[in-house]
Amino acid sequence: MAEQKRADDLAEESQDWLGGYDDQLKQLHAELDAARDAHALLTRLDAEHAELTSRQDAARRHLRLRGALAEAQAQVRDRTDAALTARARTLDLQERRLAGMAAELAAQLTAGDPCRVCGSPEHPAPAAPRRRR
Known about the structure:
The protein contains 1 helix and no strands. The protein has about 130 residues and is mainly α. The N and C termini lie far apart (about 135 Å).
């Protein structure tokens, strides 16, 4: 009889466990589905994160290149200004040299003698020496 009682108790306990098993199984399936959904979401978010990181890197690279471009443009302006200044100085020096050469030739002119440049014996407006600037 004690054995029968233990068997009945065990059968009742098993029935109770089996009654809760279906609910527990449903809950575990729901948790599994939620975990799968979370995994899919995580995978999608990882891909989006990678894309956004790539875009952020590209934006940073773009900003660096814009800065380098602005610096290069400033250097071009500075060097162009320097070149124009040097060209103006060269033209000024050439003009002054030509005027100096003309004055040297004019200083050697004698009325009635032919000009060494044009050959004319008349010298109506000879170049005058210029003062240095």
